[in-house]
DNA sequence: TATTGTTATACTCTATAACTATA
DNA sequence: TATAGTTATAGAGTATAACAATA
């Protein structure tokens, strides 16, 4: 075990903080290019993958369900998302991305170039090492 | 150069996104433990390091200067921050952390345990490799 | 009774534009 | 005239509490 918080660890934490800041910047910029807020972009990305009950969206966003109402309202008024009844439970409303919503989500994902540019400088071996270290940090069992 | 967006790169991007999400969660939680919002905590951390003109705070936060007024107002009303005149330019107001503000910032930093817990599982050698890779990604010249 | 989604309310963060006091 | 900070305003995200419909 290392000392309580050695210089190396602090350096790494600082680098992680910088990565976090830059990632956020790029995400917000990419969202803004499609006239979306960050929260709207996150919900749209979620729904482009699969329709979800309002409450599940709130859990994924780690916010209160009442907030999701407004976010989905704004996405719906732009035709990117629609609300559908759940056949199994009439209390539930399923939010689902429309065709245009899925298209926008696709553009958004590809304009998020954090993926390519910075990682392009790393070799396959280096990216593999990085993947392993990040998995360890996150407590993910490498399958 | 790797292919446009190979599976490995996508995996790493996904891991980075998870790190970003977890870091944010922990930061907001740590701030909330001191009844601070994320923005307030960021400004307080900045000012605990050194006093700054309002405009410089806005540049560091990448937001409009008008927003900083409100954030500093709230910190000031809690006695964590104070506004001082700048002797060199009477237009400028320097925001500075009070003694209590610096204390709060210290607690906040130590309650941000993203630093210790996840990185503790990595050896010194692994942390060194991670530091190098993150520096490469961020385009930082290792001194 | 419990749960799902919504509404109502209040607070914070955000950008824009107009204002003031300095420079 | 240009700049620093503020104010005013409006939109969006957030939590809390209360509500209707359904389970």
Q: CATH topology of chain A, which one?
A: Arc Repressor Mutant, subunit A
Strand content of chain A: 5-15%
Distance between the termini of chain A: 26 Å
Contiguous uncertain segments of 5+ residues of chain A: none
CATH architecture of chain A: Orthogonal Bundle
- Supply the number of structural domains of chain A: 1
Radius of gyration of chain A: 19 Å
Mean pLDDT of chain A: 92
Largest interface: A-B, 44 and 44 residues
What profile does the largest beta sheet of chain A have? 3 strands, antiparallel
Helix content range of chain A: 55-70%
User: What sequence of helices (H) and strands (E) makes up the elements of chain A?
Assistant: HHEHHEEHHH
Protein name (chains A, B): MarR family transcriptional regulator
Keywords (chains A, B): DNA-binding, Transcription, Transcription regulation
Organism (chains A, B): Streptomyces varsoviensis
Pfam family, one (chains A, B): MarR
Q: Care to describe what's here?
A:
2 copies of one chain form a homodimer. The first copy, chain A, is mainly alpha-helical and 143 residues long. Chain A has a single domain, classed as Arc Repressor Mutant, subunit A, CATH 1.10.10.10. Chain A has 7 helices and 3 strands. The first copy, chain A, has a 3-stranded antiparallel sheet. In chain A, β2 and β3 form a beta hairpin. The longest helix of chain A is centred in the first third of the chain and has 27 residues. Chain A is elongated and about 55 Å long. In chain A, 24% of the residues are buried. At the A-B interface, α1, α6 and α7 of A face α1, α6 and α7 of B. The structure holds a DNA duplex (23 and 23 nucleotides). Chains A, B: This is MarR family transcriptional regulator. Chains A, B: Keywords: DNA-binding, Transcription, Transcription regulation. Chains A, B: InterPro entries: HTH_MarR-typ, MarR/SlyA-like, Tscrpt_reg_MarR-type_CS, WH-like_DNA-bd_sf, WH_DNA-bd_sf.
């Amino acid at each position: 075990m290392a000392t309580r918080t050695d210089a190396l660890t602090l350096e790494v934490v600082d680098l992680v903080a910088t990565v976090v800041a830059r990632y956020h910047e790029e995400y917000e910029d990419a969202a803004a290019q499609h006239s979306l807020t960050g929260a709207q972009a996150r919900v749209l990305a979620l729904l482009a993958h699969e329709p979800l009950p309002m409450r599940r969206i709130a859990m994924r966003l780690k916010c209160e369900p009442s907030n999701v109402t407004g976010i989905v309202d704004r996405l719906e008024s732009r035709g990117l998302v629609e609300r559908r009844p759940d056949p199994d439970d009439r209390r539930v409303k399923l939010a689902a991305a429309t065709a245009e919503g899925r298209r926008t989500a696709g553009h958004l994902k590809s304009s998020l170039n954090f993926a390519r540019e910075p990682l392009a400088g790393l070799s396959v071996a280096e990216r593999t090492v990085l993947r392993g270290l990040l998995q360890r940090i996150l407590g993910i069992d490498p399958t």
